[in-house]
Design brief:
The structure is a homotetramer. The first copy, chain A, is of the alpha/beta class. Chain A folds into 2 domains: 177 residues, Rossmann fold (3-Layer(aba) Sandwich), CATH 3.40.50.450; 133 residues, Rossmann fold, CATH 3.40.50. Helices cover 36% and strands 17% of the residues of chain A. In chain A, α1 packs parallel to α9 and α5 crosses α6. The radius of gyration of chain A is 22 Å and the shape is elongated. The interface between A and C is large, with 43 and 43 residues.
C-alpha cells in the first residue's frame, strides 16, 4: 500500500496530530509507504515529496500548524495542472491520497481524478458530513478565553466591548464563544442583523442589567442596512472593509448611536494557532487511523466524519456547501436577527 | 410554574453554568419561580432553600464548582427521608425538580417519587444516555495539559513517568488524556492489565524509540495479578491502597521490574475544579435551557442528553450502569489488556 | 485611621488583589476604616463612596479589573474640582488616600493637596520608581502566549506575521513578548525604526533561516521615514492611523517591499484583562499591605515600589516621566534602530 | 573561543531557552565553538559531547526541559572522576564551561578545577546570589493555577483542601502560590509549624469566614511535634513519609483533629515541566547571552545573577547555602510558625 498525504487550505491546530496518526499507524503498524507532499496540492503539482517515517512525526502531537506546510493551490484551475498531479501520482505509484482539508481541498481530488479519503479540518467547523472538524474546538476555546478577558475592561470602565471572531460563512466560533463567555449580543453570518435592534439590546443591558455589554461578531456577519457598509469605511481590493471589518463597523455604530464608550478587538490569527485542545488531538488521531484502515479496505472516495461519537465514512457527494448552525441553536435571545 | 433545582454528587466545572441557564431562562424569560436547594438532596431533606433570581447567577458562568453546594446525601436511605423530602416539596408547591447530577443523584428522585428532569454531570463521563456529561471535557483537558508537562522531565531525565488520572468505573479521562498527550501505555478500568505486558512495552519504548516513557493510569484500573495488590502496600479502611493507589503501585512495579527510574504523579482534585472549557459551558447552558422547556411542556421523568449535537430527552429507565468506553475506541495498541 | 482608596487610569490585572490586601489588612487586621471611591478620582469628585469590609473583597483575588471601577478623570482640570475633592475628603474625615494608578493618577493627589500613598499599576510598566508595576507581568505573559500561537500559521504558510502589542511610550511588553517568543524583529517606542532595515532582516530570515518571520511591534513604535505615516492610511481625529495603527502599516510595508505574504494581528484589549499571573497577585498584595503600614506610620506622599525584591517607599518627586527600557536590554539584534 | 555547556540537577522550564541563547549568541553571533555535554557532568565524565549549531536549538525556546539531558552526577565523588573530566576538557580544548544548574552543579566545576561561568536554575528559587533562578516563576505559576482549581471543590463541598507543593529547603513556591491563590494557611520549610495552631486557624476560617479552607504546604515543611512524624505513617528508605509526605500527614491530622472533611493533593512533577512563562524565557535568554559575553571577557569563576533587573556576576564563594525567604515576606498571618 502506497499512500500520499497532504494538508491544504488554512492551517489549524490538530493537523500535525492527524499526520502523526497516519504515519504511526499507516506506516509503522500497517506497513504502508507514506509519501508526504509539501504545501497541499502545490507539492503534488511540483512533486515536492518526501517519504515519511516515524522520525518525522516525533513530538508533533501537541504542536499547532502542519509540518508539511499548506496552501490553497487548486491544480485543476492551473493550465496543465491535472496532468502534473496525475504524473506525480504515477511516479510515486500511489494507491490513493489521504487529504486533510476543508471541502475545497478534498474536492480537488475529484477534479484531478485520484482516489481519495478526506479528513475534515477547518476552524470554522463548516464542513458538511461531520459533527466537528479538526481545529474548531481549539479555535472556539481560544476565542472564549479571550472574550473572558474582555470582561475585566468592560466592567471596570463601563464600556461596550465588541469582539470580532473568525467565521466567514458559518457562525460556529461566534456562537460557541458568545454563549460560553456569556455575551449579551451575538451576530452571525447565518442571519443579517439590524443594528438598531443591537443598539436597543445594548441600551437595555447597560441601563437595566450590568452597566457594560459584550458583543461577539463573526467576521461574516452582515447588516440588513446596506448603507452601513458604504460611505466612509475604507475598503480593501475586494470592497471588504479594511482592518477589522465588520467588528469595527459595529463598534463605531454602537458608539455613535448609543453614546456608550465602545471598543473593538479583532482576534484574528491567534484563533488558528498553537497547541490543539484534547478534543482536537483525539479527533485528529481517530480520523487519521480510521482513514488508514479505510484505505487498506479499498474504500476510497469518502470523507471520514464524526457522527455521535463514532468515526464513519461519508460519500463525497454529501459534503457540499457550508454547514451552518442548525435551527435549534438559534433559540437564544443573544442571537439577534 | 414552580421549579426546584439542586446539584448533587461530586462537584465539577459547568454546574454553575447550568444553574445560570435555568435561572436566566426559566425565571427571567419564562417566568417560573426557581427554588434552589443547598448541598444536593441534603437541602431538600432539611428544607434549606432559597428563591433564585438573576442576581444570584450573575458572573458565575466561568466559575468552577456550584454556588448551591453539593453532597452525596440520599434521602431514601435515611429514616423518614422520603417523607421529609415530600414535605419540602409540598411546602414550596413545586411542579417538579431539575436535578443536576450523576446517575445516583438523578435516580434519587424516583426513590422519593417527585417529578424530575435530570441533567447529567460527571467528570468521569460515565452517565448513560448522553454523548457527554457536564465536566468531562474540562477534566480531560486539565489532565492532558498536565501529562504534557510530564514530558519535560521524562525526556530530560530519561525516566518513566506514570500519571494517575480520575475514572473509577470508566476510562474516558484516561483514554482522552492518554491519546491526546501521546502516552505509550494507557491503563483503564474497562480491562484488567498485565503488569508484565506493561513492562515489556516500556522496555521496547525506552530501548527502541525514545529513551523515556509516559504511562497514563485511570484510578480504577486493576491488575490481573491479584498479588500485586496485596503484600506491602498500605491500604485504607476499604482495603484500597492508600495515597495514590494504583498509580503508585504501577510505578513501583515498573521501576522494580525494568530497572528504569520511574516516578508517579497523582493528579487528584485539580482535575475537577476551575473554569469550565467552552464545550462544557455551552453544553451546560443548552441542557439547562432545554430542561426548562421540557418542564413547561410537562415532560417529566426524563434526563436531557446530548445526541449527535442535539439535546434530547431520555427515559430514566435507560440511564442505568456506568457508560464505559465503546469497543471501537479500543483499537489502539497503547491500551494494553 | 480613616483611609480612602481608589483605582484610576486604564484597568489591569491585579487591581482587585491590591484592593483586597488593603481591606483585609488595613481594615480587618489593623482596624482602619476604608472608604472606596467609584471610578477613580471621579468618585471623589462626586462623593460616590462606600465603606469597604471583608465581604466586599471576598473571592476577588484571581479576578481581573477593579470592582471599584476606574476612570481617567483629573479633578484639578475641572472647574471647582479641587474644592469638591477636598470637601469629600473632609466629609469622610480621611487621614489620606491610597491611590492605585499610574503616574498621572497618583500625581493628582498632589494637585488636590491630599496626603497620598501611591501604588503603581500599568501594563506598560512605565512608572518610574519601581522595578515592576501591577499588571505588567500578566500583560507580557498574555502577549507571549498569543505570539507563540502565531508561529503555527507563520510556519505552515511561510508567512511574515506582524503582531502589534501595547506600549505607547515604553516597550516593555514588546521587548518581553518579543524575546520570550523568539521574534525575529522587535520594534519599540524607544527607537524610531528604519523600515528598510526591517525588510532586510526579514529577507535574511526568510531566505536563510526559517522560511517565515515573526515581527513584534509596540503600538508606540515610530518609523524614521515620516512619509510612511502619511499618504493613504486612514487617520483618526488625532491624526493617528485608524484601526491597528502602526502594526498594520508595518505589515503593509513589509508585504509591499519584500513580496512575502504578510499578516497583522493587533492584540488590543485582551492584553489588559483576565486573571493576573502569580507575580502580579503577590506584588499587588505586598504593595497593598505595605501601603497600609506606611499610612499607619504617617509616611505620606510617597509611592510604594519594588526594588530588588523588597517593597520600599519612593518620594513622589522621583516618579516623573515614563520609565523606558534600560540600555543593557538593547544589546540584542532583534531590536532594530 | 571554545565553550563547553551542560545542564545539571533537576530539569526545569527555561533550560532550553538558556541553551538556545548560548548557541545563537555565542556561536552564531560571536563565533565561539560550543560543545554540549549530555546529561550534566555525566556527559563530561564520559565525553558524550556534540558541537552545537543553530539547527540544534531551533524551535526549543518555548519547550520545557533540556534537550541536552540532565543528571545529578558529581564527578569529584567518583573514583578517577576529576581526571576524566579534565581529560574531556583537554580533548575539546575548552576555554571554560558554562554550567546551567543549581548550587551543587555549579560548584562541581570548582571541585574539578575547570574555569566556569554558572547560570542559576532551580524551581525552588533557593540559589544564593540572584533575585530569581530559571524555572521558579514557571513553577510558582503552575502551582498557583492548580491551587486556584482546588477552590471549586473546597467551596462546593465545604472541605479543607491541602495542597503540597515543591520546596525542600526554601518556601518560595509555597509562599508565592499560597499568597497568590489566597490560601488560609501556608506552611514553609523555614519555620517548623505547630499543628494545633494550624487547626485553630482552620476552625476560625471555616466557622467564621468561608465554610472551607485552603492550606498550602511546602514538601520541606516540618512539624514542631516530632511525634507527628512517627508512628503509623509508612516511611521510605530515608525515613521520609512515603507518597505525598508531609501534605498527606497534615491533611490527616487536620481531618482527625477538626472533624472537617479534608483532602490532599500533591502536585509533584507537573510543577517542573512544560513551557516556561515569559519571565523565565527572558531571564534565561539574558543570562545565557551575558554568560557568553563574560566568557569572551575572560571573567571566569562567577555565577551570573539577576539583581534589581540587571544581570551581574557574583563570585562563586558567595553562592553558598540555600537562599530562604527573607524576613519581610514573613509578615503575613497565613504563614504560621
Amino acid at each position: 500500500m502506497r499512500l500520499g498525504v497532504l494538508t491544504g487550505g488554512g492551517d489549524c491546530p490538530g493537523l500535525n496530530a492527524a499526520l502523526r496518526a497516519i504515519v504511526r499507524y499507516g506506516h509503522a503498524e500497517r506497513g504502508a509507504t507514506v509519501i508526504g507532499f509539501a504545501d497541499g496540492w502545490r507539492g503534488v503539482l511540483d512533486n515536492e515529496a518526501k517519504e515519511l517515517t516515524i522520525d518525522d512525526v516525533r513530538g508533533i502531537l501537541p504542536r499547532g500548524g502542519t509540518f508539511l506546510g499548506t496552501s490553497g493551490v487548486q491544480p485543476h484551475r492551473i493550465e496543465g495542472g491535472v496532468e502534473r498531479v496525475r504524473e506525480t501520482f504515477g511516479v510515486h505509484r500511489l494507491d490513493g491520497m489521504l487529504v486533510i482539508g476543508g471541502e475545497g481541498t478534498i474536492a480537488e481530488a475529484v477534479w484531478v481524478s485520484v482516489p481519495v479519503i478526506g479528513i475534515p479540518k477547518t476552524i470554522d467547523n463548516d464542513v458538511c458530513g461531520t459533527d466537528a472538524s479538526i481545529g474548531f474546538h481549539t479555535a472556539a476555546q481560544i476565542a472564549t478565553d479571550l472574550v473572558d478577558r474582555l470582561y475585566s475592561t468592560a466592567e471596570s470602565h463601563d464600556r461596550v466591548m465588541v469582539c470580532e471572531v473568525m467565521g466567514r460563512h458559518a457562525g460556529w466560533i461566534g456562537y460557541t464563544a458568545g454563549v460560553a463567555a456569556g455575551a449579551d449580543v451575538i451576530l452571525l453570518p447565518e442571519h443579517p442583523f439590524d443594528i438598531e435592534a443591537v443598539c436597543r439590546r445594548i441600551r437595555e443591558t447597560v441601563v437595566l442589567r450590568r452597566s457594560f455589554a459584550i458583543v461577539v461578531v463573526s467576521e461574516g456577519a452582515t447588516p440588513i442596512e446596506a448603507s452601513m457598509l458604504v460611505p466612509d469605511y475604507p475598503v480593501d481590493a475586494n470592497g471588504f472593509p479594511r482592518l477589522g471589518g465588520i467588528g469595527s463597523i459595529v463598534a463605531e455604530e454602537i458608539g455613535r448611536r448609543t453614546g456608550f464608550e465602545t471598543r473593538v478587538t479583532v482576534l484574528g490569527h491567534v484563533q488558528r494557532g498553537g497547541s490543539p485542545v484534547a478534543f482536537d488531538r483525539v479527533l485528529a488521531t481517530r480520523l487519521g487511523r480510521d482513514a488508514v484502515d479505510r484505505a487498506f479496505d479499498g474504500g476510497w472516495d469518502v470523507m471520514m466524519g464524526l457522527h455521535a461519537g463514532r468515526i464513519e465514512p461519508v460519500p463525497l457527494a454529501e459534503i457540499q456547501g457550508p454547514r451552518t448552525l442548525p435551527p435549534e441553536l438559534w433559540q437564544i435571545p443573544e442571537i439577534l436577527c
